[in-house]
Amino acid sequence: MDRLQHLLISLYLLILFINLTKTTAQSPAPAPAPPGPTNVIKILKKAGHFKNFIRLLKSTQLDSNLNSQLGNTNNGLTIFAPSDTAFSVLKTGTLPSLTDQEKLELMQFHIVPMFISSSQFETVSSPLKTHAGSGARFQLNVTASGNSLNISTGLTNTTISDTVYMDTNLAIYQVDKVLLPLDIFTPKPAPAPAPELKAESESPDDAVSKKDISSGVSFAMLRDTVLFIAATVAAISFSL
Prior knowledge:
Layout: H1 2-26, H2 40-47, H3 51-59, H4 62-72, E1 77-82, H5 84-88, H6 100-108, E2 111-112, E3 141-145, E4 148-152, E5 157-166, E6 170-175, H7 182-185, H8 204-239
């Protein structure tokens, strides 16, 4: 009897263990943690040869601005990142001669407020609008030529040499020249001179009035002269 009870207990425990194992095996795996926000600086640091570009993004406070935009827009961003070699071939004194506002504008000129994959450059309209602005003084033209993507600003001609990073919202491309906008590196057009104030033209009535006044003054002078001569002659005659 004891052996039978022991056998039944063992069988019950075995069945319970099998059920627990089956239930555990069928439980869904926990969902992976959502990825952290995209950090442009971390991506550039990992690439390893964008120290100057990183320094300027930080000094102009664009780094935090870019990360914020990526988290709050569906349009995405495209960044043309000049390598350290690109900065090294600039003319001596180019960057130190810029004001803080011009440095900000220079960095903004390398950022397009929309995501553009490499294949989309074949159909995208140029010039591209950048964070610096658009128009004749902010020309940023990208054209596809075979397997090359050529960039022209009116002062700089270069190509996209590598894709640094790409997801569905951010594209970072390496360029081997700093993109120089016309707005900073060419003289700004002189403002148009202020129009000269023209003297008010006289109306015909004004001209007639002036003529009448002039005639009246001349007649009065002639009358006074005649009276003076007549009085003088009368005085002489009386004395004689």
